[in-house]
Amino acid sequence: MENRTGPSAGAPARLDSAGVDPNTLRGHLDALILAVVEHEPRHGYAIIEALQERSGGALDLPTGTVYPALRRLERAGFVASEWDVVGGRRRRTYRLTRAGRAELADQRSSWLEFTRAIGQVLNPRPQGA
Amino acid sequence: MENRTGPSAGAPARLDSAGVDPNTLRGHLDALILAVVEHEPRHGYAIIEALQERSGGALDLPTGTVYPALRRLERAGFVASEWDVVGGRRRRTYRLTRAGRAELADQRSSWLEFTRAIGQVLNPRPQGA
DNA sequence: ACACTACATGTAGATTCGCTATATGTAGAG
DNA sequence: CTCTACATATAGCGAATCTACATGTAGTGT
């Protein structure tokens, strides 16, 4: 879609290459976060970095997006956090809970269905091909 | 994610089978609509039906979603509409414009990038596999 | 000492799109 | 008449993402 001004701008300044439109990110972010803490706990800043690296730079997310999402996930019981001091700085580390693990599995399944449904409409296969 | 009350409920009553979460639909709807009018003009109600059929029932969208989207698309110049009377009823038919065709191509490209980025984070491929 | 960058966390408020709820009207069947 | 199907429309709500802004520590360079 076309660019728009405001927080949901289609191509904000931070997405300098082929970034993901924030509108399309909606509904997926929580699962993405669960995925990057699946195998080891990480603190917020490291989660932001992991999202960027694993997506090849397409997911370069503002802290204003990620931190409230972590709040939501913890409130929902999908992650649990604890505070540490590392090198003189406080750090809040998040680990996946059992419920979070189940939720991630569920979200992966939903992702498959989502991509199937959208993909079928957006790129219909020719009949009889 | 968990169900929520209000218009953005995760699993509204109308999604009785494997439906698409409205949060994840966001940002994709316009492209979906452009896709179903790509090869022939359709009126609003027929667009809703086509979306449902082509998605295998996963996209069962309320009129309150689709009609404002058609408004947006027409305002943006991606579709053009005209009124007819069919069988004694008025009907508003939408056709894809040249700009809309270009936009649809752009959106298809964005979809590929989007699925790549999200898929890579959500389901990382094992290293050295 | 100061300025700057990196690391690390947090949040108020604006924007936007999808939904619910609601409305209007015609045609056809029972 | 009632009900369903067809067909269109829109006000207002909710919530997630972003921008903008804030705080603080550590390390480097001048």
Biggest interface, and residues per chain?
Answer: A-B, 41 and 41 residues
Strand percentage of chain A lies at 5-15%
Poorly predicted runs of chain A: 2-17
| CATH topology (fold) name of chain A | Arc Repressor Mutant, subunit A
Tell me the quaternary state: homodimer
Structural class computed from helices and strand pairing of chain A: alpha+beta
Protein name (chains A, B): Transcriptional regulator
InterPro entries (chains A, B): Metal_resp_DNA-bind_regulator, Tscrpt_reg_PadR_N, WH-like_DNA-bd_sf, WH_DNA-bd_sf
Pfam families (chains A, B): PadR
Describe this structure in words.
Two copies of one chain form a homodimer. Chain A is of the alpha+beta class and 129 residues long. Chain A has one domain (22-117): Arc Repressor Mutant, subunit A. The first copy, chain A, is built from five helices and three strands, in the order ααβααββα. The first copy, chain A, has a three-stranded antiparallel β-sheet with strand order 1-3-2. In chain A, strand 2 and strand 3 (89-96) form a beta hairpin. In chain A, helix 3 crosses helix 4 (63-75). The longest helix of chain A has 25 residues, at 98-122. The radius of gyration of chain A is 17 Å and the shape is elongated. Chain A starts with 21 loop residues before the first helix and ends in a 7-residue tail after the last helix. In chain A, 33% of the residues are buried. Mean pLDDT of chain A is 87; it is low at 2-17. At the A-B interface, helix 1, helix 2 and helix 5 of A face helix 1, helix 2 and helix 5 of B. The structure holds a DNA duplex (30 and 30 nucleotides).
